[in-house]
Design a protein that fits this description.
143 residues, mainly beta, 1 helix, 11 strands, globular
Length: 143
């Protein structure tokens, strides 16, 4: 760990994908561009799916690490869906982009578990994809 990384801060981010369509694989994306690995892969049964990770915290207030994407002022993470998650028996190929921009320095410094609940199914009945717009942001997890 470098001197710019803060080892004393412990932060867990949990993403809950609400009732995604059944039969489709979902995974948390680790890595960037074409050099990525789908991790925590789960096949949806129509019930909520949850993914967790611990970001690296730099300078006490900036999120980084293999799950965190984008420049510092526009951080986000991806949930891979269908073929992006490694599923071979589907034509579904999508990513769900979840903004991290509303995670404040105060939240990072307080540590703990923060959760975002995002819609899993679009208005057309297929998996939600692109940048998630309808969610309440990152909140302290209740459990």
């Amino acid at each position: 760990m470098t001197n710019k990384e803060t080892s004393k801060l412990h932060l867990t981010l949990r993403i809950v994908v609400l009732q995604p369509p059944a039969g489709i694989d979902y995974a948390l994306q680790k890595g960037k561009g074409s050099n990525y690995e789908p991790v925590q892969k789960q096949r949806s049964t129509g019930k909520d799916l949850a993914f967790e990770f611990q970001p690296i915290i730099k300078d006490g207030a900036s999120l980084a690490g293999p799950f965190v994407q984008g420049p510092p002022e526009k951080r986000f993470l991806y949930i891979d869906i269908g073929t992006y998650a490694g599923q071979t028996d589907t034509a579904c190929s999508r990513r769900l982009k979840i903004p991290l921009t509303d995670i404040t320095a105060t939240m990072i410094r307080s540590g703990g578990v923060f959760q975002a609940r995002v819609p899993g199914t679009g208005s057309d009945g297929t998996p939600t994809c692109a940048t998630v717009k309808t969610f309440e942001g990152w909140k302290p997890a209740k459990h």
